[in-house]
Amino acid sequence: MSSGFSVNELLYPLTKGDVAGHAFHGNQWKTAIGGNNFLARGATEYTKSVGITRPKRDYGKIQVNPKQSLAIANEYASLPSVDQKTLPAYRQFVAETHQQYEYLTKNLGIKVDVTKTDPYKTAQEMMDDIRENHHLSVLSADVTSGHPFVTSKEIEEFRAVHDAFGHAATGRDFDRNGEEAAWASHSSMYSPLARLAMTTATRGQNSAMTQIGGGFPEQKGALLSPQWSDPSTIYYGDNVQKGDVSGHAFHGNQWTGGEGGVQSLVSFKNSFDQCFQNSPYSAFVNHYTLSEMKKEGMKPLLSADGKTGLLIHDHGDGRIEATALFNNGESGAGLKLLKDAIDNHGVNYVECFGPALPLMYGKLGFQVESKSAFDPQYAPDNWNYEKFGTPDYYTMRIPK
Length: 400
What we know:
This protein is α+β, with helices and mostly antiparallel strands. It contains twelve helices and 15 strands.
């Protein structure tokens, strides 16, 4: 069945964090590369006190490397739910997190409380609360999934220090690129052993969510390979954009979905159905049930306004297909999102009816792999012969 129409990613420039504020403990709450100077200095002083050198980085330029993130996601997905041999790393992670929490609340004077609902709509709200009120709220771990080796209270302490030293100290958002920068900042405050656990719970889960999708990833008592904790894997770019999705399960922020980002399958299906309601072009695209999407492990990409989207279907035989494509937005939005799926998610295969779609897909590098005559036996039930005739059917692939 046809892949359908093409699609788009709408990206906006990164909005950096804190603005200049008032004095607190003798320090000014000023911006440092978009971040909170007081917390950035606090992170540096803390690491010095425990014998760690916190490197100087341009956190405003850190972003996700899509191919690397996909490799991390695949490795995270392959990890066992629990590996008892990794327990020492998680114990060290918990101990060092508590030490950071004590420093944040006692030495830096930030009051932390726990809420039953997500306390902030945006990272900026969180940063403003810290700057203006010396206060930080975190989502209760009891309302999110648990971790095999980390208690709810310990997760909440991590959420506090991660928001403070990862996001507020760098001024970075809860989107995928902001989470990568927050990992780079906060991971530098941990010893090598503890950093293995911290990286798995942040970078690992973020990658699994943005690259594989399907909701909150399982929180695992296992560890990614040490290479993914290595600072040499940090990727810098000059044109950082606001990225895919927001937050991660361990952290506690909601995956609210960004422009062109991985969204829930339910959100995708609702937008898809609305787009093709009473549309004569409905027969040109595959229509999947939620259970079919989940069974096949499809990953949805959906614009923030819900007007443009597609599903990514990895067949496991080298074909990574863009299917169920739709565009009910501005002209050209479809092809832009399909290009994003090619560049950042490995899409290399489509199927479609001719004659227009093969020409459109050809502009993005797809080449005809097969061409079949229209077969009424396999035609969609609602096919309009008078309007569309009997076009040929194509499979197309991007050459390696």
